[in-house]
Automatic annotation (TrEMBL), chain B:
<dbReference type="InterPro" id="IPR036010">
    <property type="entry name" value="2Fe-2S_ferredoxin-like_sf"/>
</dbReference>
<dbReference type="InterPro" id="IPR012675">
    <property type="entry name" value="Beta-grasp_dom_sf"/>
</dbReference>
<dbReference type="GO" id="GO:0009055">
    <property type="term" value="F:electron transfer activity"/>
</dbReference>
<dbReference type="InterPro" id="IPR009051">
    <property type="entry name" value="Helical_ferredxn"/>
</dbReference>
<feature type="domain" description="4Fe-4S ferredoxin-type">
    <location>
        <begin position="151"/>
        <end position="181"/>
    </location>
</feature>
<dbReference type="Pfam" id="PF13085">
    <property type="entry name" value="Fer2_3"/>
</dbReference>
<dbReference type="InterPro" id="IPR050573">
    <property type="entry name" value="SDH/FRD_Iron-Sulfur"/>
</dbReference>
<protein>
    <submittedName>
        <fullName>Succinate dehydrogenase/fumarate reductase iron-sulfur subunit</fullName>
    </submittedName>
</protein>
<dbReference type="InterPro" id="IPR025192">
    <property type="entry name" value="Succ_DH/fum_Rdtase_N"/>
</dbReference>
Automatic annotation (TrEMBL), chain C:
<dbReference type="InterPro" id="IPR011280">
    <property type="entry name" value="Succ_DH/Fum_Rdt_flav_su"/>
</dbReference>
<dbReference type="GO" id="GO:0050660">
    <property type="term" value="F:flavin adenine dinucleotide binding"/>
</dbReference>
<keyword id="KW-0274">FAD</keyword>
<keyword id="KW-0560">Oxidoreductase</keyword>
<dbReference type="InterPro" id="IPR015939">
    <property type="entry name" value="Fum_Rdtase/Succ_DH_flav-like_C"/>
</dbReference>
<keyword id="KW-0472">Membrane</keyword>
<dbReference type="InterPro" id="IPR003953">
    <property type="entry name" value="FAD-dep_OxRdtase_2_FAD-bd"/>
</dbReference>
<keyword id="KW-0249">Electron transport</keyword>
<keyword id="KW-0285">Flavoprotein</keyword>
């Protein structure tokens, strides 16, 4: 769990850094996107690892949840979980499922069309008709035209934030994060779980109002 | 004060149980929670009913016998106490108090509020010791200096009373805090390091075998632990386990 | 039968070594064919089980709790004594021996105590090797504190949880042997009788407390390590389940019971708050290292405090009576437990008790806060520190030493002991009396041993602080494993002991009949009703001070109460289930017999010694008056009713120590 989480957290950071370029400099964004989309190492080494990490993370999540719920065969008549733990820590499965649903949407929006273009139609040029230069920025902006999608994205990112709010420190704890650095880790975790989703939300909203 | 108690009654491990309501009156706020239960039981015995079975022994918070899930929390609403140290001043006149046994597949109910925690013993059999003979022919106690910090941290871990509140309160019924505390105590001392790798592997394997859940770091155990055993012990155990696996 | 203590000849410092060199041993291959039953898994029983199993014997260990780790040794707080002389303050085996014999008011067996002092240092080595996290100083070496009744620092400790850590050490040693299959552990089992075959202890009848099943267990020897009988008082610092049953059953089958009247009343317990109280909580005696005990000097202040118009902190120094410092200038607040307890009782009886029940004195840390605070200010180079700063610094030091005790106090009493003095009052804590044993720790039943608090051997009429843990582990780790071999050497050809014999049949029948009686009696009063009544008689008439008149009354009253119990006790439920009331009924039945023997023993002992204080025998200034003609152990032989018990005397001789008046002035 924790290992795939680390990879995914690193991926999120990388994803956000590239996407934020779409706001700062569409040209750079296009170039980096094209590089990521066509570089063989990224495409044939990192991408499968990523997919594996995602699948592994949610499959393990389900297995964990199932095993853990089996460890208590009779539930409490009264349980006051709020007294000793955060909502986020107790509901990772629900925030996780929301994110999974979002990944479905996200794949339909970006990933399937990409795969279709590159692998089925064999178009690796990164261009499209009616657009000067690369197509990536145009596609991105276009996706955020519809308010329903923007709302769906924003909600999902909030859930991602909740997931990360527990997941970040939890992953370090599972990997044996030391007591001395606990405070620092908690602070970084808090910042990370706010900045990442906030960044994505900002991008979605920015493009919605600026297309 | 007068109280309504909702208590889990279950005749034995094979019979199905249910919550039953009782009333107690004239409870003093200076009573301990178990003394309140004594009042209820005296009342039940005198009216020809069977008293509520519950585990208790030292009644000073160190033996780890008492084990009640009170109003949705292990050992009740107070912090840093076992059920026997919980005082009725934590409650108000007219309150309804829900009392349940520890709930975990690895802790089956024996009767009413009494559960079987022998799974904890079996985890200790798997490696909760240092393999040294009790002959007394060991080297002088002061021959290996141990830094005060290490000794104190080991002591903090060793404070665990094995009551099982961590398992009871964990949404996953995980025993990681209990096992982590023992692994940590020995890992922090030079005497324990010789067989550290085997110890952590064996104890964790036994823990899984007993049917405890996995840790998802909710931190509930640390909050509810009557002895304040730190979550750091789980992290240390994870580290020890990784070290042992590499 | 004349008592033979079997103390070996020779100079005291060579006795144990010579003895070990000459006793019979069982060879390792034969140990595999020998079974030993150990009843109780506290420090004595746990360490004995582990060591016997390690030597190769097949051990069956029994505990009424759900795990060996819960035995009441776990509640010992302060520490464990050992003559290590790490502090270089002149400690030695002889000095520990001397202090223990003197502390016990010259009523213990010299040779046993010397052996205890001799092996004490080994205990610390052993425990450290097992991973017991004793407190250490900044150099990484073991730290010591001092305790009542001694002039050196020889007490090793693990915060305020020394008993817990030592017990978990013994438990871990047991776990190692359980994993190897050398100890078979019977949790939630209670021994209800011992089985004697051809005059030797050959097994026990036990009840499975979960299913109610009656079981037969055979062995070549039976070791009783079931602790003390303080719960005869109902209210004590013992665990709720602590009982005398194992010891009493062997007494009824031929083991003599020694000095039942020697009871330790511990001075630093949390006072009682009401009639519903189920037990008393002890706070470590180590608190007396830094706390000063006092009551107000005049009764008006007492009244004002009780009414709430004055607070204890309002009283100036000259309005306070630091009665221990006043009466015992040499030892002050660190006088032995019996002396401190009686002094507190004397003040409270005179009307100076400071709480609503009139049974409490103050234990004040204000002076320590100041002393430590000033020291810390110097260490941290704080110039002209304010009084508040000094107090704060001092409180940190006290918190590091006793933080858990202060927290415990606050949880129970709901007062902050950092701001207002603690209230304390003596409570029954430990019983020095117990099953009579010889130098081998064997009772008067061949093959039946008693170790730890269950026996009478080492503490005389009063136990010094931090010596109970020492004795439990000494017996279990280092003494019994040797001495039992001497007996078992004759048993290598015996083979397995059968349980389908008339002796087992008869013992099981007695046990079953008694249980059936309880279940079918359907009386009018609960078990606790009788236990509380017995406790009140004991506390009022056999408590901190005793008189012939009160003891005679106690004997009559207990006898009558016992009769009533056997007619009117009400035990709900059935015999074939988890039934705590049933288990308790059996224990209280035994307490009702022991209580009477206790009073009889106290009556016959026409002197004051240690925990036994007879009002008729005191000096002019109220100190205990020991009498030379009572320099013996009273060992009682069972003959039916407690009043018919026969007294056997084991004379006590002191060759290596001069018997003096025990003065702490």
């Amino acid at each position: 769990m924790a290992l795939s989480a680390f990879f995914l957290m690193f991926f999120l950071l990388q994803h956000l850094s590239i996407n934020i370029l779409s706001v700062l400099s569409p040209e750079t964004f296009n170039e980096v996107s094209h590089f990521m989309g066509t570089n063989p190492i990224v495409q044939f080494a990192l991408q499968p690892v990523l997919i594996f990490a995602v699948v592994f993370h949610f499959v393990m999540g389900f297995v964990l949840e199932l095993r853990n719920s089996r460890a208590r065969n009779v539930s409490y008549a009264k349980n006051n979980g709020a007294a000793n733990s955060t909502w986020m820590s107790r509901n990772m499965i629900w925030t996780g499922l929301t994110i999974l649903a979002f990944i479905g949407l996200h794949f339909i929006d970006f990933w399937f069309p990409e795969i279709n273009t590159k692998f089925i139609q064999g178009d690796w040029s990164g261009t499209m008709q009616g657009v000067d230069g690369f197509r990536y920025h145009e596609e991105l902006v276009h996706k955020f035209a519809h308010p329903a999608r923007v709302i769906a994205y924003v909600v999902s990112f909030i859930f991602l934030g909740l997931h990360l709010a527990h997941g970040f420190t939890s992953a370090f704890q599972s990997m044996g994060g030391t007591a001395g650095r606990k405070k620092t880790l908690q602070t970084i975790g808090k910042a990370y779980s706010i900045i990442i989703p906030a960044g994505f939300i900002f991008i979605a909203i920015y493009h919605h109002f600026n297309h | 004060m007068n109280l309504t108690l909702k208590i889990w009654r279950q005749k034995d491990s094979k019979t199905k149980g249910q919550m039953v309501d009782y009333k107690v009156t004239e409870i003093s706020e200076h009573m301990s929670f178990l003394e309140m239960m004594d009042v209820l039981n005296e009342q039940l015995v005198n009216s020809g009913e069977e008293p509520v079975a519950f585990d208790h022994d030292c009644r000073e918070g160190i033996c780890g016998m008492c084990s009640m899930y009170i109003n949705g929390e292990a050992h009740g609403p107070d912090r840093g106490v076992t059920t026997c140290q919980l005082h009725m001043r934590m409650f108000k006149d007219g309150d309804t108090i829900t009392i349940e046994p520890w709930r975990a597949a690895a802790f089956p109910v024996i009767k009413d509020l009494v559960v079987n925690r022998s799974a904890f013993d079996r985890i200790q059999h798997a490696g909760g010791y240092i393999s040294v003979n009790t002959s007394g022919n060991t080297q002088d106690a002061n021959s290996i200096p141990i830094s005060k910090h290490a000794a104190d941290t080991a002591m903090d871990a060793a404070t665990c009373i094995g009551c099982g509140a961590c398992v009871a309160t964990c949404k996953n019924s995980s025993a990681m805090l209990f096992v982590g505390a023992k692994v940590s105590q020995y890992a922090l001392l030079p005497q324990g390091q010789v067989e550290a790798a085997d110890r952590v592997r064996n104890m964790v394997a036994q823990m899984d075998l007993e049917g405890f859940g996995n840790c998802t770091n909710t931190g509930a155990c640390e909050v509810e632990c009557p002895k304040g055993i730190s979550l750091d012990n789980i992290a240390r155990m994870n580290r020890e386990l990784m070290k042992a696996s590499i | 039968m004349a008592l033979d203590s079997k103390v070996p000849k020779g100079p005291i410092k060579d006795k144990w070594t010579d003895y070990k060199n000459h006793i019979n041993l069982v060879n390792p291959a034969n140990k595999r064919h020998i079974d030993v039953i150990v009843v109780g898994t506290g420090l004595a029983g746990g360490s004995a089980s582990a060591t016997l199993a390690e030597l190769g014997y097949n051990v069956k260990a029994f505990a009424y709790q759900d795990s060996p780790r819960r035995a009441h040794s776990i509640a010992a707080q302060g520490g464990i004594n050992a003559a290590k002389n790490y502090q270089g303050d002149g400690d030695s085996t002889y000095r520990l021996f001397y202090d223990t014999v003197k502390g016990g008011d010259y009523r213990s067996r010299e040779a046993n105590v010397y052996r205890l002092a001799e092996v004490s240092a080994n205990i610390i080595d052993q425990c450290v090797a097992q991973g017991v996290p004793f407190a250490r100083d900044y150099g990484g070496l073991l730290d010591n504190r001092s305790f009542g009744g001694v002039l050196v620092s020889r007490t090793f400790y693990a915060k305020g949880q020394t008993g817990q850590q030592l017990l978990l050490g013994a438990y871990s040693a047991m776990n190692r042997q359980i994993a190897r299959g050398k100890i078979e552990m019977f949790n939630r089992h209670e021994m209800l009788d011992v089985v004697i075959v051809d005059g030797k202890a050959r097994g026990i009848i036990a009840r499975n407390l979960v299913t109610g099943e009656i079981e037969r267990h055979s062995a070549h020897a039976v070791v009783i390590a079931s602790g003390g009988y303080g719960n005869v008082y109902f209210l004590s610092t013992n665990a709720m389940g602590s009982n005398v049953t194992a010891g009493w059953k062997i007494h009824k089958k031929g083991a003599y019971f020694a000095n039942p009247c020697y009871t330790q009343i511990h001075p630093t317990c949390i006072p009682r708050s009401g009639d519903y109280q189920s037990k008393l909580t002890l706070m470590s005696e180590s608190l007396r290292n830094d706390g000063r005990i006092w009551v107000p000097n005049n009764l008006e202040d007492v009244k004002a405090i009780k009414e709430g118009t004055k607070k204890p902190t309002d009283l100036t120094e000259d309005q306070r009576d630091y009665f221990l410092e006043r009466r015992y200038p040499a030892f002050g607040n660190l006088v032995p437990r019996d002396v401190a307890s009686r002094a507190a009782k004397e003040r409270c009886d005179a009307g100076y008790g400071v709480n609503a029940t009139g049974e409490a004195v103050y234990l004040d840390f204000a002076a320590s806060f100041e002393r430590y605070g000033k020291e810390q200010a110097k260490i941290h180079n704080i110039e002209n520190p304010s009084a508040a700063k000094i107090k704060e610094l001092g409180q940190e030091i006290v918190k590091a030493k006793y933080g858990n005790l202060f927290q415990m106090y606050e949880k129970i009493i709901d007062q902050n002991p950092y701001e207002t003095p603690m209230m304390i009052y003596p409570a029954v804590h430990y019983t020095m009396g117990g099953v009579w044993v010889d130098y081998n720790l064997m009772t008067t039943i061949p093959g039946c041993y008693a170790i730890g608090e269950a026996n009478f051997s080492d503490h005389g009429a009063n136990r010094l602080g931090a010596s109970a843990l020492m004795q439990g582990l000494a017996d279990g780790y280092f003494v019994l494993p040797y001495t039992i071999g001497d007996y078992l050497a004759d048993d290598i050809r015996t083979g397995k002991i059968a349980t389908d014999t008339p002796e087992f049949d008869a013992a099981e029948k007695d046990v079953t009949e008694r249980i059936e009686f309880f279940i079918n009696n359907k009386g009018t009063h609960s078990v606790d009703y009788y236990h509380k009544k017995l406790g009140k008689i004991m506390w009022d008439k056999c408590g901190m001070s005793r008189s012939a008149e009160g003891l005679n009354e106690a004997i009559e009253e207990i006898s009558a109460l016992r009769k009533d119990f056997w007619q009117n006790v009400n035990v709900p439920g059935t015999a074939t289930e988890y039934n705590e009331q049933l288990a308790k009924a059996g224990r209280v039945a035994d307490f009702l017999e022991l209580g009477e023997l206790f009073a009889k023993d106290a009556l016959e002992r026409e002197e004051s010694a240690g925990g036994h204080f007879r009002e008729e025998h005191q000096t002019e200034d109220g100190e205990a008056k020991r009498l030379k003609e009572f320099q013996f152990v009273s060992a009682w032989e069972y003959k039916g009713e407690p009043k018919d018990a026969i007294l056997h005397k084991e004379p006590l001789e002191y060759e290596n120590i001069e018997v003096k008046e025990r003065s702490y002035k």
